[in-house]
């Protein structure tokens, strides 16, 4: 709770600090803010409290996800240094918008009321629409913002429609009361088509937010057009918040109607896995590949969701942590490469192993982690997800499908590794990397490997 | 404790080697590998060879709430595999002395790091630790082959990597399933897996999930298509690591994690596996006869030999299993020796084509002798190591079904054909342009070949030294399979 207030206040402070002549102070300022939020957030551990007359519950689930999202943002921001050197006038606003998006994300993992979920989604999304278009002179960035905004508001409308239908059927927005209402309805054996309709429409709305297929069409274009720093934010924090909110919704509100939504979610999961992985194979741009890869990872997280048992939440938590640390490192390297080589195609990475061993190594570890190879966090992410799903032996086919697609994943993740180590450097210069970015990359790599050796650090939290 | 030391020493040494600039890295790597060999000899001296139980055990909690532990230990089979690894790695490092690889510190660090993975596979007594180590061994060899390999290396090693990952992900799925079947809070310990009683139906598909992973690694026909290209395109040392040690991971995996875990699954499919293995023997041998590239020839001969090992261990009798174990050692020694000799020839003549070589005996007497011994060991002539393994394996297959044995026995004849044809073409006849100024072995080269040749005769003349180590473990394994 304190973290929401602090984030809002810090966001406003940052906005005003943006007027400062010396842009150098902005980054340290926002990093300190995030560190404070991270620390304060931890104080709520094992201390479940409800706020605003049952609108918001900060329990361990919320604290854990808030922690991961704050840390993700914290580790992402060091890569924004180029903006400072360009003396971009709007830097303060960008930082503020990210903090505001984080406010929305925290609401999405702690909501107790569907209205709060809606507000959280909106706060986060509106900030993201602006950030997507923050490269004002780039046509692609403008296109991304417009596309994201139009599609996003459309699906927000759909979400609201679902919420209203649920309200019509149960007479409440509170998820605990919804759960109770449907349980009593089911005990009387009443099939309530309005209620089921509401669930499915709400599912569609949230699926859009986590770019699950078949509601993913916006993702590749938006990811590609958005400035890389904010793409990274979009594919980590926004996705984590979306999946966490999704799972909470299904468990806390709709657990009793499991049979009604389960087939739909299985279909969404399968489509997401297939489209994400197959789509990534045919890309020539690394950044677009990462967009499809983020779709496929949404699929793996949805697998943990549809497993729907006691290990689902920790699987999702661990998977988000593993996925975020690897993605940020990958996007960080991409940003450094892109800033200098003006390209986000695979070829831009040629010879990086020779010119910048650190960047190449970090990228390799991230790719192996995203591919789910042991020694990296991604392996245990997949492991926990597969275990959660296999607890129901009837779902074996889904694991087999995911296994085959994970092998496909290796194919496209390795392409950049091959470009870095095995293709000649084609007279590219060494990429200039400041020491702060290098330090962050090392931290991220250590984190990825640490979670790959001692996964209990995160998986035992919930 | 000694097992943990064996496991982590190469990884630590790898970090050390990484820090050394220039060609000094190979010296440090060699010393580190020798230390590792000494450690394994110490483990052997403290090993009770009468017992089939796990020894030198160590078990630490890893993911405690999930019942996954860092559990390592050795029985006779593991110990022999560990000894094979620690014996071969220093020789492989030494064999690279004449090469000036670029970034030698990274190259040798990767070799040592891979050794940790290999040892880990052989000593892991927890399913997930096994899987973990299985992939840890793969990553370094991929980079060694893909960065320091030949012209087609990128495409070829890519296929190799994706192929093996594809197989091993199925293994992971099977392990997760088995783990969830263990009672209580679940455990992935090897003994917990052995105690499972699963329906014949689920054993049947688990068998395939595990078998695909192991069969790709060995490789067994028809999962072998990655192998000849990868062996040919990899640098010599990577080929030695792949063929000498890494393929034993697949066979060891079958012994430890397939046969005892799903015995009913095995009894449903063993005949098919034997048929595949025997097809592989004949098929690969015939292709080997037609090869003109030395490395490809030995690569195909390796498929044939591994086919016989696979056939032998799936007979599930003592001869077959013991033969499989001893043949793993023999094959490792012979194939590393042969690939090293091919490397020597290639580095002096710049060709591996049989037709452009010839007459090397006239200049290089020592090389000819060593080559002949290793080659005869590979063919399986009595008094050499190959004879012991092939005899036991074939007698195992004969016991299983005489017809299979008869066809599998072709391997001896066919091996003699392609091996002697190779020797004839390369070593005898008139000198060619390439072999005109061929020089005999250097000191370093002898230092690699002499230990290998000694082992060829040691295993050939006194196989009991090794068979007695694995016998209690094999019997223990059989009693679990026939429970």
From TrEMBL, chain A:
GO terms for biological process: ATP synthesis coupled electron transport. One of its GO terms (cellular component) is endomembrane system. Its EC number is 7.1.1.-. It is a multi-pass membrane protein. GO terms for molecular function: NADH dehydrogenase (quinone) (non-electrogenic) activity; NADH dehydrogenase (ubiquinone) activity; quinone binding. It catalyses: a quinone + NADH + 5 H(+)(in) = a quinol + NAD(+) + 4 H(+)(out). The keyword Transmembrane helix applies. Residues 113-406 form the NADH:quinone oxidoreductase/Mrp antiporter transmembrane domain. InterPro entries: NADH-Q_OxRdtase_suN/2 (IPR010096), ND/Mrp_TM (IPR001750). It holds the Pfam family Proton_antipo_M. The chain crosses the membrane at residues 25-42, 62-79, 91-109, 115-133, 145-169, 194-217, 229-247, 259-282, 289-309, 315-337, 358-380, 395-414, 435-458. It is found in: Cell membrane; Endomembrane system; Membrane. Belongs to the complex I subunit 2 family. NDH-1 is composed of 14 different subunits. Subunits NuoA, H, J, K, L, M, N constitute the membrane sector of the complex. PANTHER family: NADH DEHYDROGENASE. This is NADH-quinone oxidoreductase subunit N. It comes from Pontibacter chinhatensis. The gene is nuoN.
Automatic annotation (TrEMBL), chain B:
Keywords: Membrane, NAD, Translocase, Transmembrane, Transmembrane helix. It is found in: Endomembrane system; Membrane. Coiled coil: none annotated. Residues 66-119 form the NADH:ubiquinone oxidoreductase chain 4 N-terminal domain. GO terms for biological process: ATP synthesis coupled electron transport; electron transport coupled proton transport. It is a multi-pass membrane protein. The chain crosses the membrane at residues 6-22, 29-47, 67-94, 106-125, 131-148, 160-180, 205-226, 238-259, 271-290, 297-316, 328-346, 367-388, 400-420, 448-469. Belongs to the complex I subunit 4 family. This is NADH dehydrogenase subunit M.
């Amino acid at each position: 709770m304190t973290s929401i207030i602090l984030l809002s206040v810090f966001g406003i402070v940052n906005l005003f600090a943006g007027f400062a002549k010396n842009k150098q102070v902005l980054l340290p300022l926002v990093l300190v803010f995030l560190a404070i939020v991270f620390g304060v957030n931890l104080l709520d551990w094992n201390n479940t409290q409800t706020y605003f007359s049952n609108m918001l519950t900060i329990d361990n689930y919320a604290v854990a996800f808030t922690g991961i999202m704050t840390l993700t943002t914290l580790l992402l921001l060091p890569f924004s240094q180029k903006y400072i050197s360009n003396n971009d006038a709007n830097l303060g606003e960008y930082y503020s918008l990210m903090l505001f998006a984080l406010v929305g994300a925290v609401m999405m993992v702690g909501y107790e009321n569907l209205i709060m979920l809606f507000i959280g989604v909106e706060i986060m999304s509106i900030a993201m629409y602006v950030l997507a278009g923050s490269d004002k002179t780039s046509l692609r960035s403008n296109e991304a913002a417009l596309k994201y905004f139009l599609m996003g508001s459309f699906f927000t409308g759909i979400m609201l429609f679902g919420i209203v239908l649920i309200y019509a059927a149960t007479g409440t927005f509170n998820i605990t009361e919804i759960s109770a209402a449907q349980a009593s309805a089911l005990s009387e054996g009443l099939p309530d088509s309005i209620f089921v309709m509401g669930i499915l429409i709400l599912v569609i709305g949230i699926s859009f937010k986590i770019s699950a297929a078949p509601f993913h069409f916006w993702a590749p274009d938006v990811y590609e057009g958005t400035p890389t720093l904010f793409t990274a934010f979009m594919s980590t924090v926004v996705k984590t918040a979306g999946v966490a909110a999704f799972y909470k919704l299904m468990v806390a509100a709709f657990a009793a109607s499991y049979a009604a939504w389960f087939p739909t979610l299985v279909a969404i999961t399968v489509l997401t896995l297939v489209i994400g992985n197959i789509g990534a194979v045919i890309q020539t741009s690394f950044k677009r590949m990462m967009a499809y890869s983020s779709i496929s990872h949404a699929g793996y997280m949805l697998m943990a969701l549809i497993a729907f048992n006691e290990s689902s939440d920790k699987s999702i938590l661990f998977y988000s942590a593993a996925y975020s640390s690897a993605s940020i490192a990958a996007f960080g390297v991409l940003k450094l490469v892109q800033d200098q080589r003006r390209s986000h195609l695979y070829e831009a990475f040629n010879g990086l192993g020779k010119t910048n061993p650190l960047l190449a190594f970090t990228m390799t570890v991230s790719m192996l982690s995203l591919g789910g190879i042991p020694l990296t966090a991604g392996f245990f992410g997949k492991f926990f997800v597969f275990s959660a799903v296999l607890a129901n032996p009837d779902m074996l086919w889904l694991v087999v499908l995911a296994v085959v697609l994970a092998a496909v994943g290796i194919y496209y993740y390795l392409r950049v590794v091959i470009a870095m180590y095995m293709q000649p450097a084609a007279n590219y210069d060494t990429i200039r990397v400041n020491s702060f970015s290098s330090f962050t990359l090392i931290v991220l790599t250590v984190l990825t490997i640490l979670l790959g050796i001692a996964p209990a650090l995160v998986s035992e939290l919930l | 404790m000694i097992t943990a030391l064996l496991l982590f020493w190469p990884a630590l040494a790898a970090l050390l080697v990484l820090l050394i600039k220039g060609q000094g890295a190979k010296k440090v790597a060699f010393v580190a590998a020798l230390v590792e060999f000494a450690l394994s000899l110490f483990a052997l001296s403290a090993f009770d060879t009468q017992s089939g139980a796990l020894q030198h055990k160590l078990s630490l909690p890893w993911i405690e709430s999930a019942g996954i532990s860092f559990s390592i230990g050795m029985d006779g089979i593991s110990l022999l595999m560990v000894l094979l690894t620690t014996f071969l790695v220093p020789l492989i490092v030494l064999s690279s002395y004449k090469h000036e690889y670029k970034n030698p510190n990274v190259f040798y660090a990767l070799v040592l790091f891979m050794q940790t993975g290999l040892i880990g596979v052989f000593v892991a007594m927890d399913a997930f630790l096994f899987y973990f180590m299985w992939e840890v061994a793969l990553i370094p060899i991929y980079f060694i082959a893909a960065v320091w390999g030949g012209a087609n290396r990128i495409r070829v090693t890519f296929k190799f990597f994706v192929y093996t990952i594809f197989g091993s992900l199925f293994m992971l799925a099977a392990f997760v399933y088995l783990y969830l079947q263990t009672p209580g809070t679940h455990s992935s310990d090897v003994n917990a897996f052995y105690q499972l009683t699963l329906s014949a139906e689920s054993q049947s598909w688990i068998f395939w999930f595990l078998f695909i992973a192991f069969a790709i690694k060995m490789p067994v026909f028809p999962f072998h298509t990655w192998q000849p290209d990868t062996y040919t395109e990899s640098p010599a040392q990577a080929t030695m690591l792949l063929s000498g040690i890494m393929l034993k991971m697949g066979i060891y995996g079958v012994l430890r994690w397939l046969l005892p875990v799903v015995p009913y699954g095995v009894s449903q499919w063993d005949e098919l596996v034997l048929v595949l293995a025997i097809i592989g023997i004949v098929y690969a041998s015939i292709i080997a006869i037609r090869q003109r590239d030395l490395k490809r020839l030995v690569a195909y001969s390796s498929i044939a030999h591994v086919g016989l090992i696979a056939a032998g261990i799936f007979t599930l009798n003592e001869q077959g299993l013991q033969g499989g174990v001893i043949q793993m050692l023999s094959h490792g020694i012979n194939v590393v020796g042969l690939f090293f000799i091919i490397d020597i020839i290639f580095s002096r003549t710049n060709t591996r084509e049989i037709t452009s070589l010839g007459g090397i005996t006239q200049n290089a007497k020592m090389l000819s002798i060593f080559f002949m011994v290793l080659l005869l060991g590979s063919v399986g002539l009595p008094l050499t190591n190959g004879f012991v393994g092939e005899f036991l394996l074939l007698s195992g297959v004969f016991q299983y079904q005489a017809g299979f044995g008869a066809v599998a026995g072709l391997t001896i004849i066919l091996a003699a054909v392609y091996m002697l044809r190779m020797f004839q073409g390369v070593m005898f006849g008139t000198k060619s342009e390439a072999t005109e100024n061929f020089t005999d072995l250097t000191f370093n080269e002898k230092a690699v070949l002499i230990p290998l040749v000694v082992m060829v005769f040691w295993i050939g003349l006194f196989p009991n030294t090794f068979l007695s180590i694995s016998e209690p473990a094999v019997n223990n394994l059989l009693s679990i399979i026939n429970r």
